[in-house]
Amino acid sequence: MASRVSSKGKAKAAKGLKGSEESSAGRFVKEWSTWAMKKAKVVAHYGFIPLIIVIGMNSEPKPQLTQLFSPV
Amino acid sequence: MGSPSPPPPLGLASVLPPKEAEEKKEKKVDYLNLPCPVPFEEIQREALMSLKPELFEGLRFDFTKGLNHKFSLSHSVFMGSMELPSQSSDTLKVPTAHYEFGANYLDPKLMLVGRILTDGRLNARVKCDLTDNLTMKINAQLTNEPHYSQGMFNFDYKGKDYRAQFQIGNNAFYGANYIQSVTPHLSLGSEVFWLGHQRKSGIGFAARYNTDKMVATGQIASTGIVALSYVQKVSEKVSLASDFMYNHMTRDVTSSFGYDYILRQCRLRGKLDSNGVVAAYLEERLNMGVNFILSAEIDHRKKDYKFGFGMTVGE
Q: Which of B67, B112, B149 sits opposite A67 (nearest CB)?
């Protein structure tokens, strides 16, 4: 009886270990992709408008830097 | 002997010029050479342009400054009331004021539009032509508050007489739509979408019939919405539009009728609704690049009166 319980316990422990290994790999990918999406969102939030300005200032015909700030 | 000569023309036929044989040839439809249909999301665009102008309440001032013909900056000020959705029949209005800075880069192959408000919200739109027929569009609203940002990627493919689109959005939203020209005037389309987090999916069908003078569209979706619209171009300057929408889930029926006058110095759009709403929107061109805007929306049922005025400077 004790041996059956202990063997059941061992099987459960073995399954538990294997399950946590698989879920840790899946969890690792999900956490990494969530981290990447969060960083991408911050980069896009701060950098999108400067990106448009840089691309625009380098397009032909090149506008002057003063034209960026003056209201004329 | 040759074929007998046709009988001499009688009555009116003798006065009018004879019909050419070529006219009959042009009427024959070439089913392999149909025109490309409008994109699926623009299937009701004539009706939307006439019946849903951007009505606002308060003051609006937009200034667009072009630095070169592709790149421009825009400054926009708004002071007025914004309506909050409320459960009861009362309207909740919150006075708001904001300044919005925007930058636009418009190239035939790449279009970048970004707008940022004083509270940190960013509206970004990117349209990029990857090849001649494949276009990628990105639409995003990013906010400082967590979990409130939204984004959508669209991939559009334009074929000879069809268009297909695939959409991926946040909250695991996937959608696809397809529209095909069936005759030179009729195009049929359908769309499917799947919402991952709520495990909801839907399918819809749409049809659009247009000639030079009129456009009729119909849309039906599994979310229980039926939408029909009809636009008639009465003359070069005037078009009339009407619209019908039925929501099966909320048993809501709305029908509206509107007019759109495009004159030399102004554009006047007005509409009358079955909910007791009368609205009008006037854009008057005062000078080259200076437009004066008046907006009015009177809701007789809820006793809500909204009036707005503004000016737009720049192209």
A: B67
